[in-house]
Amino acid sequence: MTTEKEKSSHSAFSPNREADQSSKAQLEILREIAGIFSSFGGSFWLRGGWAIDFLLGRITRPHEDLDLVTMVECRDRLERELAAAGYERFPVSGRQTDFRKNGTDIQVCYVTYTEDGKIMLNGLPEWVWRDDALQTRLFSLDGIPARVLSPNQLLEEKEVYREIGRIPRPKDEESKKLLRKLIDCMP
User: How distant, in Å, are the alpha carbons of 50, 158, 166 from that of 163?
Assistant: First the structure.
């Protein structure tokens, strides 16, 4: 019999077997990608749902994919290394490359700095990011260390969906609630 204390220590996410296997597979891909970045001294940041899970230190829901951000200077090396590790590459634009391995989709966005030191999505000067977007702190989930975009940056991205013509999904609304709670708890 499960005690109340044991119930409260478990994640709010109760995965079915398929969702649990998908999360494990995505985490293994992320572990491999973290190793690839480490091998060439590159850095990446998580965004989207996995970023929130790393901030919380637990899996909150099933995820469809992995969303990463890295500096545009890492692009060529990253693409070569991922290809050598068996990732399929799907070039999207100067701002993003998509990859796939073992049924897991990975989107990598590339950022750069403007002349005045602001962070922007490569090739999209209209989208200037928050100064604190690229956190230096490492978070860990399932023994995988990763940086994540700041909660404020993640929240801003979710809040502009309507402005860019994307209809918020129920999971986006839940993510916004979690991010607001995280922001409220920050010093």
Answer: 23, 10, 7
- Half-sphere exposure (Cβ direction) of 32: Cα atoms closer than 13 Å: 19
The whole-angstrom distance between residue 119's C-alpha and the CA centroid of its chain comes to 17
Write the DSSP symbol of residue 76.
Answer: H
Please name the residue that has the structure tokens 């990011």: 129
pLDDT digits (tens, 9 = 90+) for 96-129: 999 999 999 999 999 999 999 999 999 888 888 9
Picking from 25, 39, 53, the residue whose alpha carbon sits closest to that of residue 146 is: 53
DSSP 135: -
**Domains in the chain and their CATH numbers?**
11-185 (3.30.460.40)
For the entire predicted model, the pTM comes to 0.84
- Compute the distance between CA of residue 76 and CA of residue 63 in angstroms, rounded to an integer: 27
Q: Would you say residue 184 has pLDDT above 90? A: no
